[in-house]
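Subject: for your reference before the review

Hello V.,

The reviewers asked for a structural picture of the protein, and I figured it would be easier to keep everything in one thread rather than splitting it across files. Below is the amino acid sequence we used in the manuscript, unchanged from the supplementary table.
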Amino acid sequence: MQLIRWSYSRRGQVRAYFDRFPQSTLYFRRIRRYYFLFTIDWHEEDPIVTDEDKEQMHRLLNRELGREKEYLKRRTRSS
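And here is what came back from the structure prediction:
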């Protein structure tokens, strides 16, 4: 999966588009020092978003924004 593009949206949100979900818009919000998926404006032509997809999207966006280190150090990390 690749991050196609992203932009800042209103109220500190980041709007992102990924190649695997080209019709859907994903919104991320900043939690402490990293960005986390908040909501998905999902389009029915796109595949269903799995937990593995979410994890990969979190890593890609935080890497792009220079926050990957903080994301990997988060306290709620499952692995």
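For the response letter, the relevant points are probably these. The first strand starts at residue 3 and ends at 8. The mean pLDDT is 90.

Happy to draft the paragraph if you're swamped.

O.
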